[in-house]
Design goal:
3 copies of one chain form a homotrimer.
Chain A: H1 37-50, E1 55-57, H2 64-69, H3 76-81, H4 85-93, H5 115-124, H6 133-145, H7 157-168, H8 175-181, E2 184-188, E3 191-192, H9 198-205, E4 212-213, E5 216-217, H10 219-222, H11 229-240, H12 247-263, E6 268-273, H13 285-294, H14 300-321, E7 324-329, E8 331-332, H15 337-343, E9 351-352, H16 362-368, E10 376-378, H17 385-394, E11 400-402, H18 412-426, H19 444-464, H20 470-488
Parallel strand pairs in A: 1-2, 2-4, 3-5, 6-7, 7-10, 10-11
Antiparallel strand pairs in A: 8-9
Chain lengths: 499, 499, 499
Amino acid sequence: MTLPETVAAPTAPSFPASRAGTQPLRLHPERFFDADPAIRRVAVQLYEETAGLPIISPHGHVDPWLLATDDPFPEPTALLLTPDHYIFRMLYSQGLSMESLGIPTRDGTPVETDARVIWQRFAQHYHLFRGTPTGVWFDHELHELFGVRVKLTADTALTIYDQIAERLASPEYRPRALFDRFKIEVLATTDAASDTLEPHKIIRDSTWGGRVVPTFRPDAVLRIAQPGWRAALTSLEAVTGRTIGSYDEFISVLAERRRFFAAMGATATDHAVVEPLTRRCNGDEAAQLFERALNGEASDLDQRLFEAHMLMEMARLSTEDGLVMQLHPGAMRDHHTRVFERFGQDKGADIPVATEYTRNLQPLLNAYGAHPDFTLVLFTLDESTYARELAPLAGHYPALRLGPPWWFHDSIQGMRRFREQVTETAGIWNTTGFIDDTRAFCSIPARHDLARRMDANYLGGLVARHQIDLDDARVMAHALAYDLGRKAYRFDRPHTATH
Amino acid sequence: MTLPETVAAPTAPSFPASRAGTQPLRLHPERFFDADPAIRRVAVQLYEETAGLPIISPHGHVDPWLLATDDPFPEPTALLLTPDHYIFRMLYSQGLSMESLGIPTRDGTPVETDARVIWQRFAQHYHLFRGTPTGVWFDHELHELFGVRVKLTADTALTIYDQIAERLASPEYRPRALFDRFKIEVLATTDAASDTLEPHKIIRDSTWGGRVVPTFRPDAVLRIAQPGWRAALTSLEAVTGRTIGSYDEFISVLAERRRFFAAMGATATDHAVVEPLTRRCNGDEAAQLFERALNGEASDLDQRLFEAHMLMEMARLSTEDGLVMQLHPGAMRDHHTRVFERFGQDKGADIPVATEYTRNLQPLLNAYGAHPDFTLVLFTLDESTYARELAPLAGHYPALRLGPPWWFHDSIQGMRRFREQVTETAGIWNTTGFIDDTRAFCSIPARHDLARRMDANYLGGLVARHQIDLDDARVMAHALAYDLGRKAYRFDRPHTATH
Amino acid sequence: MTLPETVAAPTAPSFPASRAGTQPLRLHPERFFDADPAIRRVAVQLYEETAGLPIISPHGHVDPWLLATDDPFPEPTALLLTPDHYIFRMLYSQGLSMESLGIPTRDGTPVETDARVIWQRFAQHYHLFRGTPTGVWFDHELHELFGVRVKLTADTALTIYDQIAERLASPEYRPRALFDRFKIEVLATTDAASDTLEPHKIIRDSTWGGRVVPTFRPDAVLRIAQPGWRAALTSLEAVTGRTIGSYDEFISVLAERRRFFAAMGATATDHAVVEPLTRRCNGDEAAQLFERALNGEASDLDQRLFEAHMLMEMARLSTEDGLVMQLHPGAMRDHHTRVFERFGQDKGADIPVATEYTRNLQPLLNAYGAHPDFTLVLFTLDESTYARELAPLAGHYPALRLGPPWWFHDSIQGMRRFREQVTETAGIWNTTGFIDDTRAFCSIPARHDLARRMDANYLGGLVARHQIDLDDARVMAHALAYDLGRKAYRFDRPHTATH
């Protein structure tokens, strides 16, 4: 092995090259735990008790058609690389064009189509992922799912490609078979308000017993100043067979849709905003905003006020239909306009912004934060709010639970920071356990495994420092890996939906 | 022991329950130190040298009547639970009503009055405090103060209750006896500008030698737009026998009151604001603001400007009377309106907000930051300011000292973050040592013990990494535990007050 | 040794004084590495492989005349203390006057001139630097450069002074000899847009082979509302022999100057702003702003808009002339007006402010962030942006690289936080390696040594936790210590300048 190609030849005394040839890929059984033996000993014990627990996946972006049709997965590049913006954003940041990685253009301009060429390019730059969670997850998939036993490099790329391709062709690698093998107890997808939930129906009507539930995400119909709003509203009319000519009809349709989602097994809604402003409109202000939107006249400020109001309404409806409300603020979407225009959304160019919760959420929490049948799960991309705002809020309001570190932060150090900055004020029981938030189905076990390791390691530290004893730690490890997520998202409640 | 009741029974392979029956409560002598033997060895040595030092408690909320009358403490629930918002906020956050915990309502609506029932409820949920400083402090009190040797659980709750109640009835558990046993060298209370300091007089006139000093906290008379302002001003007139008809009279009365506090042993003032804006009013702007306040016409903006001006004035008066100025910004008080309306202040619903210091404090620091007889002790609830603003400011201005991690942040990880983010820029000598800030008298030793352990551990890390040597570390440990607080709050100066 | 004088004598059981007399100064070979043996073992190995690599110093403030004339350094105080604001700000913060430390006044008011007296004062307060990077660097210089083997204290101060003075008189301690001994491969200075680069010419024309290159820093001519702007512009006219009567001429002159700097070896520009706003002016708005500036009528808002526009222009010119663009936002300069008025700039009173990057940089990154021949190196004084904004931006935009922790943050814990908060999202290959940013020439090896140790320690942690293997870590250590800086600042490219 030589120096990666992105590093120029030094004039310094030349670096002693690593051993040439094929290197073994090993996953150390005690990986990611602190090196300290006292911590590691406890962490290993706690991890061993939770590693085999079923996976609760209450929030993610897996395509439900995958499990509805149960078709075989495509070849490795289409499965593992081109859909994963964690991967291609990093390659892009180091000068590889999106086109060379086979990312499809919106206008159909041709891009690289040779899957093996793309895979080779990725392998040549795989060193970029050293020290990142993507690298950790990917090695886990290679080793555990596909039985790869050599490190991915330019030399080994195509051999590994062929090995994965061969596996994918076998029945054991069909989506439903993997779902069962992954021990997924429940998997929630994310679905537009106007979605027919057709794949969910197919799954429920099948003989397969896997629990796949939808999540109600109405963002598109709430962003009244966006170019796509009218189309989103039309879709909503189409799927319900109702006309939406007023704000009251709009609310009524949303309530109906929420009930439909619940009947299809949903236990939660999901809401993404830039700023988590909550504020109830006065009088007929909401109706006027909606009217302006129907006339194509809604401004950015109108949308800001409408979204703030609709978060209040979504919370109110949750107190009626029991759907858990998830709020994910703080991402400025599509920061790179040229990339968006050429390749569309979700291309690794969503960038966080500083986020304020204390003042923004006060109206919603004052109205519903102590409601006995309301749960709000809150996320952040701004870690400075963990100890300052989120933990104090969650340590008071009964309805509030903190979602786990999310997106850029569900990493080894990110998970450590979350526990260290949240637990001392809010405890663990005001948090929900892990969500994987992934569209990469095959990475689900890797992600949950990493989270369970990091939680075991955190608790191992508490035991090694004699803050808690091992009995306490075992209960807490179990709660973090399984109980808390199951309870927060109400998967422990009897499912009342008609089947 | 079974899973806590807040966790639903899993469908996963059931969790192996902890051993049933009574579990021993042990405080490990090396608790809270890093697991690493090299760090722990030094930390233990440093801690052993500081553990027995007298306690300097320059800022807190203990009721001075406690030590004036020296009456026995009430039963355990009224002593340890109902006054402690750290405890009941967490129980409330997990769905226990304030009423069920015996928190009195403002309108007298009945709440739970059976102290044993409340204690039992707390014990059933004691697992919520695992990994929190409240849990650490409470175990310390149980073990060290009350001799409890079994873990607090639903099973052991009432036995422990009776054991504490029995102790509280004995003379050794009277407040003054505990004060002496705790080795408190000085305890500062927090007192309104209009306070008569009657209990402080009683203590000074008694034969008991404990040093209990007041702190001048004029917040109520500075918040000119608050409903309670007029009443606060009237109290100030009543206690001084003067009428306050103008801004000049107001300043004159405040200066008089400060001198009275100083004569009664006070060495400091204390100021809480949401935003630490400082700005001197021009011309007669301050007088006009005060006039509007007297007419009941002060707006929120008026108050903002008046508070900003009064911080300048308080600093100016400090340069005259030598009282150390403390500034605690960043808490949005009574975030949960319904809780405030029903139960009042200090119910665990004060939530921090992001705080700016660099620009806000510039006027005050430019005017008084290099004054030879001025000390400003600064606190924060926004940890992101430690390394960014506070340490650079304290590393320049001679008058500025940083108070220790405060409120939500005087925890194990919180204290670690403070030292790690402050020391490299400001050193330790620009910090003040620990304050406990507590109204829970019995928790004072637990809090100082934890702080001394964490400082010893921090220094142990510096020694183990060979940043400083052991000789240096010993001086620094002593300074952090004792010297710095004593000096910053001027308890080392001869007391000039008439007695 | 007794307690430092800033700590009052305790009434507590008196602290056992350290051993009296002279204490040895030792630099532990494994200093600053984690105490954990598994981490330290790897860290030591990685450090040993990078410790001897040449130093790349692409950003700093060493005076190039030093190396142009190669005159002997002055005595110790003038070399090591009075020019170093890291040192005297800390002494000032603890009550020592600037005058007593020999800091020259702007109006010539006399200050302490006895170098030995100043050195003695510093030594008496050297304990203030315990746990700070300044203390670490200074001990390194004393031990490694000057052969001091006793700790600096009041007792040893003058002996050490004499020892250093003696060394400075010898030819081996001339600047060029030290440059070679330090193994500096390239040293970049920082130079005003109007600089003649006379010392750089002298160095290039000399027989000495050291590579010293200028950096183009045009801040002074971009701050159109500052009192000194007109004079800065006049200097620019003088050095180019051109008149600058319009915005177009201004841009033309800047482009010419940039080409001159590049011809003299520069590979980079540098830009300091408070807020990193970027925004291209519309139409002739820039010309109008410039016109107002020429008329002495530019407002603060005008300057804000002009600077935002000029950052766009500087990026555009970089795509033409290939100079790497550095951006250092977030410092509020000269916070303490009295200190500025009496002693001038760079007196330890520059204080960071919270900084926003996501929205501010969007225009610049949209325009040039994917340009194949553009590199933007970004710095911050607001660590809360590492994980929230900077790492996500660098993990997407091909032109963006993150500079290392800077100023207050190039410390042991500061470097740890940087790697832990940046790497998981951006990897190491989107960072540039270390810059020392120093005007203290003799501290360059100490600063790079500390950085190499901290990077080795970070990688040691990854290996010990089995995130990467040792082969990976060795390549990464080499990259961080040498390759990344050399490549990001384009020192690996053939030098096209005429000589």
